[in-house]
């Protein structure tokens, strides 16, 4: 897989989307604004921090070097503050937002892991960690049994399908990165959406 | 901000103070001495390990390279063992001890983050993580909803105010480090103390 | 202590054994296969990831560079799938399996920490983290009060005794590595087994 980096807006976009879902979680739990910001931070940056800080471990995480990541989290907090009165109507909409972030972060994680020279199965694992790590940290910090252990959610499965097909498409089929990215995000989004619709 | 390191005794002092609070937590929960040592270790070194191991990520954490950190934890365990009979009388005293450690660790974290080339908002975040990380890990490991999510404690706010003023004082006002350190510790200590007094 | 690496089969063996115990935990909790794999991964690789990703912090963790670690986890999942019908009969057997993995991972952790230039007390701590980290992460993720805080299990004590005697044997008595390894694993296994028999 080429040591190619994805455009930064995919990263910022996924951070923003996940920060919103973290902030909504805090609002639903009636946390104050400190809890809201902490959960938005964990949800938005947690997966990437685990990826860079533990699994790749090559200098300071991207989220700490470019201030844009933290501004994306703050933008997510503000967006959640505006939207939260419409939660009832927008609940399902945020599940789709989350499904999109899931696909985007999986692709980002697998790309960075492969570029850092990790083994192929490790690249798939790191993609999944990048995708689900934020919600895992959020659940652990709020003392909740992690969402991803609940059967029938296909949360991990959707991320895994996207990351595995991404690694296969770039490594074995040698598809151009720009095509492989959208195939992988599409597969994750479809798998997760189908599980939302049929549950 | 100059790549200046603070005197090591601030670091050892904060480790010692936080190790005491972790050990007191274990004593109040009737853990055996293994649990006491593990909680003292997490409380004393957890914030610094998160800082060095995840957020800065530049070689082995300071706490692993200098044996003095682990001796500070052991000294904290012994001190807690001596004091624990007087817990009833000293409870409030330890809240002030904790407030002092909170300020000291925030300053240490922000200094190290800035010296490692992290972005300015990231330096503030890392200072806060350094300050509150130990108690966060302690709460997660003991399966408690983290203390810092409880409204009205101003725990994160106090650390944030100290770290932000520290970064502002050194970066924008160009105050000497020795003055900025005590301003920041003073702000954190005052903010936290006021919330203790009025709650 | 020489910067000597242990044969890789000790590492793979401990990963396999701990992945089995993680998978059995998931089966007992009626998780689906995603939960089973996630817990096997955390139990099998968690201690080593904490060691490399946080405490030693020198490039990507071993478990991410050699695909063999992930295959060991998958082999552990398959083995647990075959054995789980015999859980009632094999429960005690798995406690011994776990005690063996505990000793092996403690030795691996202390060796790698000393080779990375950590202080001597830090090498003992990292050995213990390597040994108990997987089960700690498993307990945190499943929202359980960590097993190792329960009094009378001697889980941490057994790992600590093994790691401390290992560091003492190689550093002070200058015993050959091949002898020190088996002494340390033997001490951990015996200490843990005695606590199982008498509880």
Layout: helices, strands, pairs:
Three copies of one chain form a homotrimer.
Chain A: H1 8-28, H2 33-56, H3 62-65, H4 68-83, H5 87-115, H6 120-141, H7 155-171, H8 177-198
Helix pairs in contact in A: 1-2, 1-4, 1-5, 2-4, 2-5, 2-6, 5-6, 5-7, 5-8, 6-7, 7-8
- Supply Rg of chain A: 16 Å
Structural class of chain A: mainly alpha
Write down the overall geometry of chain A. globular
The proportion of strand residues of chain A reads under 5%
Overall pLDDT level of chain A:
88
How many individual domains of chain A?
1
The N- and C-terminal alpha carbons of chain A lie at a distance of 36 Å
- For this structure, the quaternary state is homotrimer
Helicity range of the residues of chain A?
Answer: over 70%
Uncertain runs of chain A with pLDDT below 50, 5 residues or more?
none
- Order of SSEs of chain A: HHHHHHHH
Biggest interface and which pair forms it?
A: A-C, 28 and 27 residues
How would a textbook summarize the main sheet of chain A? none
Tell me about this structure:
The structure is a homotrimer of 199-residue chains. Chain A is mainly alpha-helical and 199 residues long. Chain A has one domain (8-198). In chain A, 78% of the residues lie in helices and 0% in strands. Chain A has helices spanning 8-28, 33-56, 62-65, 68-83, 87-115, 120-141, 155-171, 177-198. The termini of chain A are far apart. Chains in contact: A-B, A-C, B-C. Chain B binds chain C through residues 31-32, 34-35, 38, 41, 49, 52-54, 57-61, 63-67, 70-71, 140-143, and chain C through 53-58, 113, 116-122, 125-126, 136, 140, 143-146, 148-149, 151-152, 156-157.
